[in-house]
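Q: I have 452 residues here and want to know how they pack in 3D. Can you give me a structure?
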Amino acid sequence: MTHHHRTHPLHFSASPYDNVKRFPSSEHSTRASHGRCILQLTINPSSDQPLLRLPSELLRKNFRAAHFTIEKDTSALKTLLKDSATAAVSGRASQQDVLRNLDAMISRMRGVKRKLAANAAEESRLHNQAAARIAHLDELYSMDSVEDVKYESWSRKRLDRLLADYLLRHGYNETASELAQQRGITQLVDVDTFVAASRIRDALLKGSVAEALAWCTDNKKELRKMESKLEFMLRFQQYIELVRSQSSTKLAEAIAHAKKHLIPYRSSFPRQVQQACGLLAFPPDLPASAAYGDLYKPARWADLADLFTTTHNQLLALPAVPLLHVALSSGLSALKTPACHAHSSESSSHTSSVTHTPGPSEAAAAAASTLGHGVCPICSTELNELARNVPYAHHTQSHVEHDLRLLPNGSVYGRDRLETQARKNGLPSDQVKDLRTGEIFSAETLKKVYIT
């Protein structure tokens, strides 16, 4: 008897590793160890690594901000204290002058205290966030297998996290925040980070570069290490807007702006600097070549917004695409086999053939070839077309359930799996239950499946 690889049903909510070989009960410890290894494989570095990496990046940024505050204000205070002491000793400063200098130093120290208190509060928040995320991932290591009831709850929480990330990346900040609060995953979702980035992106789309330039100033050292062109392109856009007005005052400002912010980068961006110089001779209302006419197009603001988003994600080590896309593409690929799209090509080839009534053997063959399509996620109407261009799963080793049994309705399961589910459902020892349809059959009606 030929066993088709799609005769046992798959469940979309389950892990692709559910259909691994079931070991006898005498090897429970080995099976538990194998199950834990499979659970650890469910952690996707592309989607789960940012969960821990982003708080680390934000902690590093917060520490640098505190260090800069201490270095800058300490140096200023030392200079002011030295000048005040020298003036007081030499008699060049009166008692009132010395008191004013002391008040200024006290006021500055209070400002430093406020800044450091804010840094300390942010550090505490990030530490709590990182601890919550480590605990979330550590829950996976307390489970024995994907069949553990706690795994479904853990997977649901991860799915909610991916959905919130998707919403935040597409600007649905309030919806994402509400979802995180309702599901109790506020510590697992970076709402504040994406809201701040969304605010800057929206400002760029509205024609304002002030917010983005302030962000560049805060991250100047990191952007320089990345060799990012974001700040230059923002300054270039400022120059374009000054030239666009065509007033003599604005044109003078544009020339001064170019000398200060554009000309120093002529070795790094020679083409853009050359365009900036030539733009003065091409007003926006004058027919110009494409090289200059494109600079006045409103679409440049959308390009700047996209450039900011890309730079922001690179700086914080965030994936370029939503985490949901990463998980979905890897999940589709893990479940996809050549049979998933074979039936669609077969049906299209049969449409041009002569219609005839299939015989019993043909009907049985057709039923066998399509068995499992109704429960395979990739064969479903919703995902079949979406998975068409996804690569097939790369299986170097096949995993088949031990001691397969054929049910009267055509479904095939491992005997151990059927008996385990029957005990959980309180069925008599001579009855089994179809795990998909819920139908109950007598154990005597089961047939052993031989793989050939």
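Q: Anything worth noting?
A: Strands lie at 404-406, 412-414, 431-433, 440-442, 447-448. Residues 42-142 form one domain.
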